[in-house]
Design brief:
The complex is a heterodimer of chains A (about 350) and B (about 260).
Chain A lengths: L3 E10 L2 E11 L4 E5 L6 H9 L6 E6 L2 E2 L11 E3 L11 H11 L4 H14 L15 H13 L5 E5 L7 H18 L2 E6 L2 H7 L2 E6 L2 E6 L1 H6 L4 H6 L4 E8 L2 E4 L2 E4 L8 E6 L5 E3 L5 E10 L3 E8 L2 E8 L11 E5 L6 E4 L5
Parallel strand pairs in A: 3-8, 3-9, 6-7, 7-8
Antiparallel strand pairs in A: 1-2, 1-4, 4-5, 9-10, 11-12, 11-14, 12-13, 14-20, 15-19, 16-17, 16-19, 17-18
Helix pairs in contact in A: 2-3, 2-4, 3-4
Chain B lengths: L5 H24 L17 H8 L1 H34 L5 H9 L6 H15 L5 H25 L4 H8 L4 H30 L2 H6 L7 H11 L4 H23 L2 H6 L3
Helix pairs in contact in B: 1-11, 2-11, 3-6, 3-8, 3-10, 6-8, 7-8
Classes of the chains: A alpha+beta (about 350), B mainly alpha (about 260).
Chain lengths: ~350, ~260
């Protein structure tokens, strides 16, 4: 049964529609990522769940109760803000204790729970510091402790890693995932970082232009993108515009193999760059290497082909397989190509 | 660190001299033993400081101005804080108009304001009352408080309020525990400037004060209109000394930059 349910949420500011239609069911203990480019409505959706923005239409059901019109202070949700929003004039301990204080919890119990929570986020010994005396990662952990100490029914995270550098971000992601698993708390995170969404979430909700584009587990979404947007926002893709012709797809004059499953008409032919391999002779299409970028564990090739520019990713196993100017054949398996009706999902 | 150009040093010290020299003359004159203002003088004495104690009216006016300044500044804070929060944080119809109205006492000449308020008070039958004087001063000092509190509110991160609300705080609790403490630097700076402005106000007060409610500047102005002797220099010296002490204490406790800069 769905623990948190969004029913046709819509938010319009006059003429401008921030969220067109958002319906979603989230199970208890699930970690869901709202992923999308800026302006896709992910933050507005989170703000509606938190109660800071009132939906124009739709309902929010939490644990069977309609909380659509409930004030933010009565929802009992834990929120970690992008800026962390730690109270600058309070110590770490006072920040974490604030939610308990508002719940009129006795001083003694408050102290114990704060200490336990600081221990959990590995910040014991920092209780008497002020936020300005902490590093970015420590601030984020305080924000997390403050949100979790009230034992919220749902944890909301608004781009929580945005302000951290790459190394620290990876470390915090692992820590966050471990903590979330351990507490078993239902979590919704907003992010524009596809790698973050894929590595953390049980399910990814891909948003674009205020609508839900696709909802799926990370692997499923990567392997079976719903269309051009999903395939290019989540990872890289070669998207070729073609038409179904018999048992294959015709892109320009080239016939490309695919599992068509009864499709017809104008389609997008999607093939991931890492699913393509080089062939010295022959190949499904032939192309010329125009550029290549070394990425450490892999090479990214840019090629000119009769079906348009294509990208190929090749694992670095020693010597590069091709250099600029080389004519190469490209091969891939038909089951790795995805064919979706063009314009079905933008 | 680059070295400050020598010309800038010279300009700086000339400017300080320009500001401080008149005060220095007043202080020096107050130590004369003559019955008239002269500088330089030959005999030094404290007779004019002693004379202040015999002028009970000046002492009364001093306490009145002190109480008036504190009351007007405090009431201005009480009005300015909600106004500043509304203006800095929300968009509403006639917002610019409201701001312009609240700031308008700054743009009106004090003499015009004095006449207008006197007219209003007589209409209300409150001429010469202490309440009228307090209200008039509050109007004049409100813009200073409003400006500084708006400056403090403009830099406020609204996620703080949202965080407080999400943790279960009522709107009032969020204001008292989070928002108000964040505005304190602006409020403190505004209060001090408002107090000083009120304590110093002469032009408007001439119209609004009465025999029973004569502020110190009005008392001094009236006195100097009739008599010219070093008594006023002595009073000024006492005020300068008090101000200096207050500034030093404030700087030691909070830092003047912080209070008057309106920064957290």
């Amino acid at each position: 049964m769905a623990f948190l349910k969004l029913e046709s949420l819509r938010k319009a500011y006059g003429e401008f529609v921030a969220v067109k239609e958002c319906s979603l069911s989230i199970g208890e203990g699930e970690f869901v990522c709202l992923l999308g480019p800026s302006g896709c409505g992910k933050t507005t959706t989170l703000q509606m769940i938190a109660g800071f923005v009132e939906p124009t239409e739709g309902r929010i059901i939490l644990n069977g109760a309609d909380i659509t019109r409930l004030g933010p202070s009565k929802r009992g949700l834990g929120i970690v803000f992008q800026s962390y929003a730690l109270f600058p004039h309070m110590t770490v301990a006072a920040n974490v204790a604030f939610g308990l204080e508002m719940r009129a919890i006795a001083k003694r119990e408050r102290r114990e729970r704060v200490a336990h929570m600081l221990d959990l986020v590995r910040l014991d010994g920092f209780a008497d510091r002020y936020p300005r005396q902490l590093s970015g990662g420590q601030r984020q952990r305080v924000a997390l402790a403050r949100a979790l100490v009230i034992e919220p029914s749902v944890l909301l995270l608004d781009e929580p890693m945005g302000a951290l550098d790459a190394l620290l971000r990876e470390e915090m992601q692992i820590e966050l995932r471990a903590l979330q698993k351990r507490l078993g708390i239902t979590t919704i995170m907003v992010t524009h970082d596809q790698v973050e969404a894929m590595s953390l979430a049980d399910r990814v909700v891909l948003l674009n232009n205020g609508s839900v584009e696709q909802v799926a587990e990370p692997f499923a979404m990567y392997e079976h993108p719903s269309g051009r947007f999903a395939s290019t926002f989540l990872g890289k893709s070669n998207v070729l515009a073609g038409d179904v012709s018999g048992a294959s797809v015709l892109v320009g004059d080239q016939e490309l193999p695919a599992d068509l499953a009864g499709m017809s008409g104008a389609v997008d032919y999607i093939i991931r760059p890492e699913k393509i391999t080089f062939a010295a002779a022959g190949g499904l299409v032939r192309g010329q290497v125009t550029a290549r970028v070394f990425l450490g564990d892999r090479w990214l090739y840019q090629l000119d082909t009769p079906v348009g520019p294509m990208q190929v990713i090749d694992t670095n196993v020693g010597l590069p397989k091709a250099v600029e100017g080389d004519a190469v054949g490209l091969v891939w398996a038909a089951e790795n190509a995805r064919v979706v009706a063009r314009g079905a999902a933008s | 660190m680059s070295r400050t150009p020598i010309a800038l040093h010279i300009f700086h010290w000339l400017f300080v001299l320009f500001m401080v020299a008149p005060l220095a003359v007043v202080v020096l004159v107050s130590f004369t033993d003559k019955g008239y203002i002269s500088f330089p003088f030959d005999g030094a004495s404290l007779r004019w400081f002693q004379a202040i104690w015999n002028q009970k009216s000046f002492i009364d006016s001093f306490w009145l101005s002190l109480a008036l300044g504190a009351t007007a500044a405090t009431l201005a804070v009480v009005l300015a804080v909600p106004a500043a929060m509304a203006i800095a944080w929300h968009r509403f119809p006639a917002r610019d108009l409201a701001l312009a109205l609240l700031m308008s006492p700054l743009m009106l000449p004090a003499i015009v304001l004095g006449i207008a308020i006197l007219r209003l008070l007589s209409h209300l039958g409150m001429t010469g009352s202490l309440a009228g004087l307090v209200a008039a001063h509050m109007v004049v000092v409100l813009p200073y408080v409003l400006r500084l509190v708006i400056a403090a509110a403009a830099g406020y991160d609204h996620a703080l309020s949202q965080a407080a609300r999400s943790l279960g705080a009522s709107a009032w609790a969020a204001f008292r525990r989070i928002e108000l403490p964040q505005l304190v630097p602006g409020i403190a700076g505004g209060w001090i400037i408002a107090f000083v402005t009120s304590f110093d106000e002469l032009t408007m007060s001439i119209f609004v004060s009465s025999a029973g409610t004569t502020t110190l500047p009005v008392r001094m102005y009236n006195y100097i209109a009739n008599t010219i002797d070093p008594l006023l220099a002595a009073i000024s010296t006492v005020l300068i000394a008090l101000t200096l002490v207050l500034m030093i204490v404030l700087d030691r406790l909070f830092g003047l930059d912080r209070i008057l800069g309106g920064k957290a």
